Amino acid sequence: MPKSYLVCFLLWILLQILIEVNCQTTPFKPSSLYRHTATLIDNKLYILGGNDLNTTIEKDFFYLDVSVPFNTQNLLWQDLSSIDILPPHEDATSVKGGPNNDTLFLYGGFTTDQTMALVYIFNPQSNSWSIPKITGVNTVRKDSLTGINYNGKMYLWGGCSRDLNNNCVFENDMLILDTINLSWGKGSLINAPIPRAYHGTALLPNNNIIYIGGFNDNTSHYIHKTLNIDNGSALTLSEIYIYDIMNDNWSTKITSGKIPSNRAGFSSILDGQRIIIFGGVFINPGYFDTTLYVLDLTNFNWYIPNISGKIPSPRFRHQANIIGKYMVISFGEGYNRSIENDILLLDISNNDEYVWTTTFDPAVPNNIVSTTSSPLSSSSNNNPSNNTPVVVGAIAGSLFGGILLSFSVFFLYKWNKNKQNQKNVIKIYGNAGYNNNNQEGIPTSTESNNEQKSMLTILRNFITNRTSRNEVMTIPAIINRNSNQGQEIMQTPRYENTTNHEPINPAPVDRNYNQGQEDNDRLSLQIFKDELLQAVKQENQNLKNEILQVVTKENSDNIRNNER
């Protein structure tokens, strides 16, 4: 193979290694920020679809591993977008279901792609999507609602269907998707609440479903900075609605206490005998309002809980899940991404005081069924101290791989060079008897030929023995091409025959033999070595800087934690 081709090939391999190292040390940054779905399956929080800051509908698909500790300032998302078969969409809803309750079911959502199916299934075990065949009649696509799973059935109440102009048509029908038998059904509408979307919902301990607040006015508008609705309205939270799954009927409860102002687009989760809501856009009550409320299910009394920690900005069209002892809030509108984290953690293990924190500890088992809720209209990552070994390990492994590649390239070139030199030596000795030109040379007798064959045999044996011992095959120095081109290749006494130790005369060699080609080879090899060394030095420096940044970040976080 010509050396120019070999150099290009090896440089290509080095480039691939450097790209791989860069990919390992560059975390995935999600584009989707709100109107997404968030589904917890097997300690993985799967995020799908939604909008970016420019209101572009996205098809991001990624997850956060919640089986390990992490810090919200340094989130390590795992990107699965390459296997996502869904068109870009927003305001869909998803649950965990299926025969083994380990499959993601996604329903509805708004999209401009008319080919999007009504239901998709994601299998986390095989990391694959499919479109199920569902019996029964249901052609209604809804968005801006929250699905609830109970015993393998997905309950879909309210939300928006769309008219020809894509305006929201508020619904109040109850669709029921059997995720085990893959069939459609419907629930009762007798005494059902008025149509709405962007409402809160959760599965209660008695297996009833609660529906709270929401939005049913297409003219509503809100102020982004304050989240106050300045035009139109939202629905009251002084009444809540309960759907009895077993008896297929509806009832209404009147609430008391510190009732939140009318609002929509908030999240709601169940914590024992309490419903916790966060965020949303709301009607200005004329006094300072908060973003966190609790509804006591024993008496349907609203109250504002005691809270410590750094209180985050309110959000809406986000999602919330119960994971262990935390209410985990993902993304949403209304916060500054450069200041606040994409994930918020509210420690709700102490009912007397909830704590906003940035550290997630999975040690506490999750014994609570989690539900998510959120969806309105308008306008990082593992704990550094725990993640440092992973990051440093990845960097060290990449560094080792780069060094190993460098040595491999070096020895490959040495082998290639020595192989070429071996050919030159054989050619020199093979033509020695014809380079007399008025000079004394090696006789071309039978004895001389035997001596040459013996010399070549020794050379072959030397190479074979070195190779069989897995040693680097390095041919002893042959000649100094500038001054000593007539020396033998083996370390025998000068001018002595290798078999009978009789003096011999060295064969004069044409000093211009292949000199131009050899100079070019040396120049190409030196250029390659310089380029390779420079690339490896630069990559090593980059990796050192990354390690230093991780360690510095960890130390600063530890100092802040100690100060607290």
Topology:
Layout: H1 3-25, E1 37-41, E2 44-48, E3 61-65, E4 70-71, E5 77-79, E6 93-97, E7 103-107, E8 119-123, E9 128-130, E10 148-150, E11 153-157, E12 160-162, E13 168-170, E14 174-178, E15 183-186, E16 200-203, E17 209-212, E18 221-222, E19 229-231, E20 239-244, E21 249-254, E22 256-257, E23 263-264, E24 267-271, E25 274-278, E26 281-282, E27 292-296, E28 301-303, E29 307-308, E30 319-323, E31 326-330, E32 343-347, E33 354-357, E34 359-360, H2 384-430, H3 446-468, H4 515-563
Helix pairs in contact: 1-2, 1-4, 2-4
Protein name: Galactose oxidase
Keywords: Kelch repeat, Membrane, Repeat, Signal, Transmembrane, Transmembrane helix
InterPro entries: Gal_Oxase/kelch_b-propeller (IPR011043), Kelch-typ_b-propeller (IPR015915)
In short:
By secondary structure, the chain is α+β, with helices and mostly antiparallel strands. It has helices at residues 3-25, 384-430, 446-468, 515-563, and strands spanning 37-41, 44-48, 61-65, 70-71, 77-79, 93-97, 103-107, 119-123, 128-130, 148-150, 153-157, 160-162, 168-170, 174-178, 183-186, 200-203, 209-212, 221-222, 229-231, 239-244, 249-254, 256-257, 263-264, 267-271, 274-278, 281-282, 292-296, 301-303, 307-308, 319-323, 326-330, 343-347, 354-357, 359-360.
